[in-house]
Amino acid sequence: MENQSNSKQNQQEHTFTEGLSFEGFRQIMKKFANDRDWNQYHTPRNLLLAFTGEVGELCELFQWKGEVSEGLPEFSEEEKIRVGEEMADCLAYLTRLADQCKIDLTQAILRKMEMNAKKYPVEKCKGKSDKYTSYQEMKEQPQGENQQNQQEQLNIQQQQPEQKIE
Amino acid sequence: MENQSNSKQNQQEHTFTEGLSFEGFRQIMKKFANDRDWNQYHTPRNLLLAFTGEVGELCELFQWKGEVSEGLPEFSEEEKIRVGEEMADCLAYLTRLADQCKIDLTQAILRKMEMNAKKYPVEKCKGKSDKYTSYQEMKEQPQGENQQNQQEQLNIQQQQPEQKIE
Amino acid sequence: MENQSNSKQNQQEHTFTEGLSFEGFRQIMKKFANDRDWNQYHTPRNLLLAFTGEVGELCELFQWKGEVSEGLPEFSEEEKIRVGEEMADCLAYLTRLADQCKIDLTQAILRKMEMNAKKYPVEKCKGKSDKYTSYQEMKEQPQGENQQNQQEQLNIQQQQPEQKIE
Amino acid sequence: MENQSNSKQNQQEHTFTEGLSFEGFRQIMKKFANDRDWNQYHTPRNLLLAFTGEVGELCELFQWKGEVSEGLPEFSEEEKIRVGEEMADCLAYLTRLADQCKIDLTQAILRKMEMNAKKYPVEKCKGKSDKYTSYQEMKEQPQGENQQNQQEQLNIQQQQPEQKIE
Predict the structure, then answer these.
(1) What is the domain range of residue A25?
(2) Is residue D51 part of a domain?
(3) Lesser CB count within 10 Å: N end or C end of chain A?
(4) Which of A83, D57, D127, C87 shows the shortest CA–CA distance to B45?
(5) Residue A164 CB neighbours (<10 A)
(6) Which one of D136, D137, D138, D139 would you mutate to disrupt binding with A, by most A Cβ within 10 Å of its Cβ?
């Protein structure tokens, strides 16, 4: 009994802290820029280059490591914190970029995952790396999806009362 | 009077649809990979290279455009959809990467924004690009922040029922 | 007369200093790594990530600049030196990567330019940006080219007898 | 005896074909753009984004491979050709970028390697990965180096009389 619950704890899935949405983070970033009067520098291509700069910094943390394992046991605690910081920087600029481009990032994510779900049906792709390696080809044609259906398939539950997605 | 309210409408802030959190997206991506038995391919460096690949594709959409404006009026509707899709791909791989590295992306974002808020106090930075251009230097030393305090300062409230931030 | 020669001088084409070949640089980099016993760290994916890291640093130098002009008049002398350094770092890792992958970079360049010359015939492409914007689609199918022919067309002469640099 | 010479042959160093210099490639790329009247699109940031796009495509070729070995034995012949093509694309845009920025790429490379040689003296760095991992920190301060001296140390000889390609 105890063992069972222990082993359950051990294999407990890693999660992100709840409570921050893409829209919530957009608001934080927007306010941060507004407060400092920085929107004037936040043109789309300036932000895109800032984003690629952060991506480069994230890559640098992995550059001499050889293959690394799930959970980064090969990294020191300080290095793991750095990884999180660089990820945060990537997200900050990508979020600002989407905001300044007036792209609805939430909708873009949901639509794209729906496209992926159709392109990679579970029954055909399960455990097949050959199929999977063509994952990279999967983003050609934009489609106008039925988003209701999409949310059902992807099991997105609306946090209520907050509902509306469209 | 009417004009005023019109102009208010026109300058209405662009928002992302609410209802999707970083943790929610992590779950979607995790389930997507689990269902297809793809975790075996999702090693940290595989995901990192997949992420950089998507970043490259996002860059390609902006490469021959010259400077572009807020809202991307220079892009066709189809191009804007492509931009959203590539952003979604970037986010998908970054989210998977954080998950497989067992990084708490939400906490990483909140900590980093707190560090930024300290480094760029409003009164000193407002409208100063010279200060701002040193933004890129701002991610050297990892710090163990008081996260409670951080969330208070940034006004991040845990979920329910989606209290407005601005 | 004088004016003419002056104006000719002014419009003199920018050149790189001659005397360093791709193979020569490969040798320099190889020796540098050998002398320090660093080949053990120079696995393909380590080098690829180091390369992307340097690309990010190059991007950072352009990130808050808005559109910049030919010759970078908007940059300080120090900034221009930094740009050259980051470009050098990019080239150093790309060269090491090609070497460790046993790719013949010179042949790869010549083949690719030949493919481009066929894909973008002068008469069809001249001054057409619409054609040009599809430049990014031009690298799909590998081809086995006649390299002799290719070098004739591109006027690459082999330097005999291949002066050693080390 | 025979074995010895055989084993020497087997361990023959991989080389790039000689005969193409950085300046020679600059000329090829310049002529290619001139012939098509494409300089108008080749602004620094357009080229920088095109470069990052190609870097992303190079990364994609390595993304699901796990760690790969020297010489890429895990890649098919076709995949290796693709790798060479993407490297060529990276080099093409980086070369155009340096040209349009009026950076002397050859000098930048030589200066940077000289800086690296000073920063990483053989006797201190040999086989030490801990030293090596700080390689990424080595590009902070621009310096005005004695280039004569530098070229002597690196044994770069100037090829006179600089055979013209165009």
Answers:
(1) 19-104
(2) yes
(3) N
(4) A83
(5) 9
(6) D136
Length, in residues, of chain A = 166
CA-nearest residue to D67 within chain C is C45
Report residue A6 CA to chain centroid gap.
31
* CA A149 and chain centroid, separation: 22
Secondary structure in 3-state letters for chain C: CHHHHHHHHHCCCCCCCCCCEHHHHHHHHHHHHHHHCCHHHCCHHHHHHHHHHHHHHHHHHHCCCCCCCCCCCCCCHHHHHHHHHHHHHHHHHHHHHHHHCCCCHHHHHHHHHHHHHHHCCHHHHCCCHHHHHHHHHCCCCCCCCCHHHHHHHHCCCCCCCCCCCC
Using alpha carbons, select from B75, D88, D56, C91 the residue that is nearest to residue A52.
D56
What pTM was estimated for this model as a whole? 0.81
At D48, list the tokens.
């920088």
How many Å lie between the alpha carbon of A108 and the closest alpha carbon of chain C? 23
Per-residue pLDDT of chain A (166 residues; tens, 9 = 90+): 444 444 444 568 999 999 999 999 999 999 999 999 999 999 999 999 999 999 999 999 999 999 999 999 999 999 999 999 999 999 999 999 999 999 999 999 999 999 999 999 998 888 765 545 544 443 333 333 334 444 444 444 333 333 333 3
Contact B52 A59 (CB under 8 A): yes
Which residue of chain A comes nearest to C55, CA vs CA? A56
Give a yes or no: residue B49 inside a domain.
Answer: yes
D143 domain-assigned: no
CATH of the domain at B75: 1.10.287.1080
Q: Please report where in the chains the tokens 């067992």 appear, as a residue.
A: B102
The answer to whether A55 contacts chain C (CB < 8 Å) is yes
Query: Is the residue at B117 inside a domain?
Result: no
Express each pLDDT in C54-87 by its tens digit.
999 999 999 999 999 999 999 999 999 999 999 9
Q: A134 contacts in D (CB within 8 Å)?
A: none
Q: Of chain A residues 8-37, which have a CB less than 8 A from chain B?
A: 13-32, 35-37
Q: How far is CA C106 from CA A152, C24, C109, in A?
A: 53, 11, 5
In whole angstroms, give the CA distance from residue C20 to residue C15: 13
pLDDT means over runs of 10, chain D (166 residues): 46 92 98 95 98 98 96 98 98 98 98 94 77 43 39 42 34
Nearest to C50 among A45, A50, A63 (CB): A63
* pLDDT for residue C136 is more than 60: no
Nearest by Cα to C92 from D146, D112, D68, D81: D112
Cβ-based burial of A117 (10 A; exposed 0-12, middle 13-18, buried ≥19): middle
- pLDDT-based confidence at residue C25 (cuts at 50, 70, 90): very high
Query: How many separate domains does chain A show?
Result: 1
